[in-house]
Amino acid sequence: MNILITGGTGFIGAQLVPVLAGAADQAQGDHLTLLTRRPEKMREHYNAWAETGRLRFIASLDELSRDEAFDAVINLAGEGIADKPWTSQRRRELHASRALLTESLGDWLRRAKHAPQVLISGSAVGWYGNQGERILEEDAPAETGDYTHQLCRDWEAAALAAAPPSTRVCILRLGVVIGPGGGMLRRLLPVFGLGLGGELGNGQQYLSWVSRSDVVQVILRLLTDRAMNGVFNLTAPAPVTNAEFTRTLARLLRRPAFFRVPASILKLGLGEMSTLLLDGQRVMPSRLLGADYRFVHASLEEAIRAALNRESAA
Ligand SMILES: NC(=O)c1ccc[n+]([C@@H]2O[C@H](COP(=O)([O-])OP(=O)(O)OC[C@H]3O[C@@H](n4cnc5c(N)ncnc54)[C@H](OP(=O)(O)O)[C@@H]3O)[C@@H](O)[C@H]2O)c1
């Protein structure tokens, strides 16, 4: 396939791109065009693929000709939601890097001569807002006052508007992605490794997670399965409370995790961004299960174990 990818140079892309493009020494693979603010650095990083001609890096959609015929577009670009406090400037960046970038993708798709068969576009379980213990399938209503809902709502709306009428659209409401070398685990490992891990707030907030391998496998399925379209909760079917997550990670690392960080401290330090840690969603991937998708890592323990094995092998 010929695939255009935004946001393919991050944590998810690090596994997705080699799977799609094939190993550098293999003869077969998809042809990928990656939109990135760092084309030179990425070319260097993927140097081993240079000879294959299967990877191209562009800094702007203006570099694409109208004749370009992409079979699929995968749209994952977005500034890190947990990287900096949500000042009004930061909210503009979070919005621009998702909704506005998706709108400009739509502008390009309208100019292009060929419509892709499928647009797979990112979103997050934050779309549901803070929902306590309620089990959330794809048709559950959102807490519309929450910032994460508003950000994801605009991102999803931009994706639906960007797709030409003949293009199948799949929206991924991603849970926290667990894998080696990045994401939440990379932030937690140093803390838990020192025995300083612990529950956040009362520990009862739900965390919906998914392994990075499952994110990649689901994207592969959506690329080719014409029966799949619409919104998909991309989470493992076993969401856990923060307390359970903390216990599982500490046990697998063989470290104590007695420190409890009070909600008031997190609110003081992080402002509204503390909702990422103190609020939660108990999400079920009902549409993926209904489509007989078998999760590579259906339990948190398996997902963390697999990530830790890869960390120690690296
Ligand atoms: N990982 C998770 O746990 C998780 C959970 C829910 C949702 N998601 C969403 O899924 C997407 C991919 O996740 P990830 O973990 O792979 O993210 P990541 O490692 O933070 O990578 C972010 C990607 O977005 C691009 N990007 C960032 N800011 C941009 C900007 N201002 N303009 C254009 N491109 C920009 C980056 O490209 P360059 O730096 O190369 O330009 C990079 O490819 C993100 O949108 C994220 O919000 C992730």
Question: Can you describe what's shown?
Answer:
- It holds the Pfam family Epimerase.
- It comes from Paraperlucidibaca baekdonensis.
- This is TIGR01777 family protein.
- Belongs to the NAD(P)-dependent epimerase/dehydratase family. SDR39U1 subfamily.
- With 314 residues, this protein is of the alpha/beta class.
- The protein has a single domain, classed as Rossmann fold (3-Layer(aba) Sandwich).
- Helix content is 40%, strand content 16%.
- It has a seven-stranded parallel sheet, with helices on both faces. A two-stranded parallel ribbon has the order 6-13.
- Strand 1, helix 1 and strand 2 form a beta-alpha-beta unit.
- Helix 7 runs parallel beside helix 11.
- It is globular.
- The protein starts with a strand and ends with a helix.
- The model has no long low-confidence stretch (mean pLDDT 97).
- It binds NADP nicotinamide-adenine-dinucleotide phosphate (NAP).
- The site of NADP nicotinamide-adenine-dinucleotide phosphate has 25 residues, from helix 1, helix 3, strand 5 and strand 8.
